[in-house]
Specification:
This protein is 59% helix and 0% strand. By secondary structure, the protein is mainly alpha-helical. The radius of gyration is 20 Å and the shape is globular. Bound molecules: protoporphyrin IX containing FE.
Length: 402
């Protein structure tokens, strides 16, 4: 690998606090002994997709049935609802099987995770909304897939749909029959299957310099998990947000079950946070890098938040990204410096956390700045919060045209 990239891997790894950042290696060496399955063949997940549903969805698109399937799934929201009628029989049979919880899911842990998500929602919102969201733009495979797929043309809508995934996962009833997450995750799995069929037909994606023939492998989904869940765990620890061991384990468990529902094989799903961080150091840190598509996506996402005029400056937002992801990433994305905001965040954010956690008796002077940022993210992306409606996740039948 060129020396410049090797240096970037090490400095970005250090900035994100990912221990043992390593250069990309051709060989997959993460042991399935550290997975929820406890054993496995050890096949590199880069070559593992979602064969059965990929074939079913490709046939559905080729038969021109996408609109009919989306219409049939309209109103299919809650876990208790039966799989809708009017779907091709193979698809409804597949959904019947895949709506079930894995045998290893622990409902008491999942209930604790829901409570944890509620208690820590402010920080998680900031981490997913700013940190993880912008990190996705420096994951080349993800940035190129998102940019060149249908939803890339309307990032506000896409971000709202992705937030609805996070919202449903965090909900107190997420996995219960009264919750929505099992439906949301399965709908997402169908969208990913469609993207695997459609994106290779995009001349723009083909010309983008992508390095895989079929997108969204198990490896890629794990990378995204590490840029969200594992990154959140790392930041919460770093920011000294109080968490019990049981909370940490429960939080991981909700992601383990989510990954299962997204089609990641159990032999790749980390069984512990240690195993997750080790996997992240192997597959996330080394791949971070700027792309033209990622730079545009980051600018669109940050612009959507900044345009909500709550007195926040774009400089403050830029610096909050740099605070979470480091200056190397900030420089890749060309985020203009605002040293006053940088100093305010460096001092103010830890104080904000301490006050919220009841460790400081007096409200800090800059408290409102962080509250406004939270509101701006919510207003930009969480349209459920303002309109009360869910943004339905629908199966695309085309790529981004331009
Ligand atoms: C669609 C979540 C991994 C690329 C979606 C949607 C959700 C989602 C909720 C539906 C939103 C929409 O239709 O716009 C997730 C989660 C992941 C993950 C939770 C892992 C933890 C990935 C990865 C890639 C990817 C690894 C690519 C490398 C896409 C694309 C779409 C999509 C291209 C379709 C956008 C369109 O409508 O055109 N994902 N995703 N996702 N995802 Fe993912």
């Amino acid at each position: 690998m060129p020396e410049m990239n090797r240096r970037a891997v090490l400095t970005v790894g250090a900035a994100l606090g990912l221990a043992g950042a390593v250069a990309p290696s051709a060989a997959w060496s993460w042991s399935p002994a550290g997975s929820v399955a406890g054993a496995g063949a050890g096949v590199d997940p880069q070559w593992v997709w979602d064969d059965e549903i990929d074939r079913i969805i490709a046939t559905m698109i080729q038969n021109g049935q996408t609109a009919q399937v989306n219409a049939a799934m309209d109103g299919w929201v809650n876990n208790w609802q039966p799989v809708p009628s009017g779907l091709p029989p193979e698809l409804s049979g597949w959904l019947d099987t895949h709506m079930k919880m894995p045998a290893w899911a622990d409902m008491s842990k999942l209930r604790r995770a829901a409570d944890f998500n509620r208690r820590k929602d402010t920080y998680l919102f900031m981490i997913y909304g700013v940190g993880g969201g912008i990190m996705s733009t420096v994951i080349p495979r993800e940035a190129r897939s998102v940019y060149h797929s249908k939803g890339g043309a309307d990032m506000q809508d896409r971000a709202a749909k992705t937030f609805s995934f996070g919202y449903d996962l965090s909900d107190i009833n997420a996995f219960e029959t009264t919750g929505e997450f099992r439906v949301t995750a399965n709908r997402t799995r169908l969208v990913h299957a469609a993207v695997r069929h459609l994106l290779p037909q995009s001349p723009h994606w083909q010309a983008s310099g992508h390095d895989e023939q079929i997108p969204i492998s198990n490896h890629d989904i794990l990378v995204t998990f590490h840029s969200t869940g594992t990154f959140a765990h790392k930041k919460l620890k770093e920011w000294r947000v109080p968490m019990s061991r049981a909370d940490e384990e429960a939080f991981l468990h909700s992601w383990q079950v989510a990954l299962h529902f997204l089609g990641v094989k159990d032999e790749y799903i980390p069984a512990s946070w240690d195993a997750a961080h080790a996997q992240a150091a192997q597959i996330l840190t080394p791949v971070l890098s700027p792309t033209n598509e990622g730079k545009v996506l980051a600018e669109v996402l940050l612009g959507l938040i900044a345009q909500i005029d709550l007195g926040l400056t774009r400089g403050f937002l830029n610096e909050f990204v740099r605070y979470q992801l480091g200056n190397e990433v900030g420089d890749w994305l060309g985020l203009k410096r605002d040293y006053v905001s940088a100093a305010t965040i460096r001092v103010g954010w830890p104080t904000y956390i301490a006050f919220r956690e009841g460790l400081l008796p007096v409200m800090p002077a800059n408290f409102y700045l962080f509250d406004q940022l939270l509101r701006a993210i919510a207003m930009a992306f969480l349209n459920r919060g303002t309109s009360g409606t869910t943004t339905a996740i629908t199966i695309p039948d085309m790529n981004r045209p331009t």
